[in-house]
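Anyone up for a design puzzle?
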């Protein structure tokens, strides 16, 4: 700042404004002198027009901070909450001015790139309706045109021409807007061109401002474009053709009527759509029941993924469905539940599902459940035996034969006999046939059936 003693010879030539001298840190640093110094810095900040000007202000604030630290200023009384704190007030003023410097800087080319990348992420990650896709395409095309006006030379030197990318996408299907991946590629191309242009916050301020205006319009266009989340549930279902199968119907709600028709036609994707979209317990139950009735007809990669996700939360209806689907993908998850003796109802459902799947990996874990000295609920063990029969693996013959011979529960023994008959090898049938005259009716019934099967094998085939 000037002290009035400047040599007139040092003044600027007539007609040229004199450059204001930078303020200097006062030699006698008091609260008043430091406040005046900060006032001068504030004036300089207000007059700053370039990044270099702001750098100068930043340097002055660093000096001010040093001066405040070194100044001999009165300290506030710690016991008086309302006591003056000159040092704290000055430090707050410096922080405020630093914020002002940050606010005054830019905008920069990096800000444009960030805005474009954010928009590209929105375009790519949002599920748009058909109408929304058209609006998104229009917004992107408008942005690319505006960017071309602002940085035409940079776009011309870009690795990929965003306008050509859009034209390529439209050429693929003249009746439809450019695909989302082409729109994203066009935005990425503009972002790359802006980066390569290395725009200067001072020299290219107009171009940066124009690009930011264009990104604001792009963002507004994307905000206005219709996405699936904007629609009510029934509108989403209608737009995706869920109700198209309905003719004359008598079941209400109509979603249930449509679900029945989709089940009859094997439209797995539509049942999954209803399961995902309709949040009522009523429709959730009917969707799951539809899958259970469909069995293997309802097995697709998507349906197994959905149902398995529920089974991983020990959802018993989902586990039943995986069994009816014979979904081998569920084996590892279900085998983990076999030893859960504290939840016998879950075990019953899991054992049956593993049997229906034919999971050979479950043979030993299920055989372990037949041990009469184990912790498995007595009512659960017959289910383990029957599951082994459904799997049909000959490795189960010995543990099943042991259970048939020595288990104290007739229900377990009968289930073991039934399972051995399902395995059906001669060794398995002979193990059961020994008990045809057993005192227990349920066990002897299995023995008689096994003996009859062996007799049928022994009879010679009729000659022609």
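Challenge accepted. My sequence:
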């Amino acid at each position: 700042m000037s002290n009035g003693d400047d040599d007139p010879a040092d003044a600027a030539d007539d007609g040229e404004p004199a450059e204001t001298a930078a303020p200097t840190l006062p030699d006698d640093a008091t609260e008043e002198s430091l406040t005046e110094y900060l006032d001068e810095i504030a004036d300089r900040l207000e007059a700053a027009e370039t990044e270099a000007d702001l750098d100068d202000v930043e340097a002055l604030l660093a000096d001010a901070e040093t001066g405040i630290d070194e100044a001999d200023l009165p300290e506030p009384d710690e016991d008086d909450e309302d006591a003056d704190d000159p040092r704290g007030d000055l430090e707050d003023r410096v922080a405020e001015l630093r914020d002002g410097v940050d606010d005054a800087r830019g905008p920069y080319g990096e800000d444009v790139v960030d805005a474009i990348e954010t928009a590209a992420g929105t375009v790519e990650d949002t599920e748009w309706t058909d109408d929304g896709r058209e609006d998104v395409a229009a917004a992107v095309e408008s942005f690319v045109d505006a960017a071309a006006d602002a940085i035409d030379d940079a776009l011309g030197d870009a690795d990929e021409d965003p306008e050509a990318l859009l034209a390529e996408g439209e050429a693929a299907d003249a009746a439809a807007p450019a695909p989302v991946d082409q729109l994203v590629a066009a935005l990425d191309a503009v972002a790359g061109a802006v980066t390569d242009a290395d725009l200067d916050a001072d020299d290219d301020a107009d171009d940066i401002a124009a690009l930011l205006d264009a990104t604001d319009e792009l963002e507004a266009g994307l905000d206005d474009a219709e996405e699936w989340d904007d629609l009510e549930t029934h509108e989403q279902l209608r737009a995706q053709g869920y109700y198209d199968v309905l003719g004359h119907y008598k079941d209400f709600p109509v979603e249930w009527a449509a679900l029945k028709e989709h089940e009859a036609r094997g439209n797995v994707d539509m049942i999954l759509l209803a399961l995902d979209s309709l949040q009522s317990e009523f429709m959730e139950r009917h969707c799951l029941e539809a899958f259970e009735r469909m069995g293997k007809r309802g097995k697709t990669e998507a349906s197994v993924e959905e149902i398995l996700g529920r089974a991983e939360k020990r959802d018993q209806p989902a586990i039943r469905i995986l069994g009816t689907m014979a979904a081998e993908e569920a084996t590892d998850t279900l085998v983990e539940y076999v030893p859960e003796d504290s939840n016998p109802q879950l075990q019953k459902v899991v054992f049956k599902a593993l049997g229906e799947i034919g999971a050979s990996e479950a043979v030993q874990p299920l055989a372990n459940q037949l041990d009469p000295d184990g912790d498995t609920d007595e009512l659960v063990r017959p289910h383990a035996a029957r599951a082994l029969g459904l799997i049909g693996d000959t490795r189960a013959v010995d543990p099943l034969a042991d259970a048939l011979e020595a288990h104290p529960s007739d229900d377990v023994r009968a289930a073991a006999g039934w399972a051995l008959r399902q395995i059906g090898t001669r060794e398995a049938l002979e193990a059961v046939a020994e008990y045809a005259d057993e005192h227990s009716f349920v066990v002897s019934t299995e023995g008689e059936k096994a003996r009859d099967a062996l007799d049928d094998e022994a009879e010679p085939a009729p000659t022609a």
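A detail worth pointing out: Residues 29 and 70 are 8 Å apart (CA to CA).
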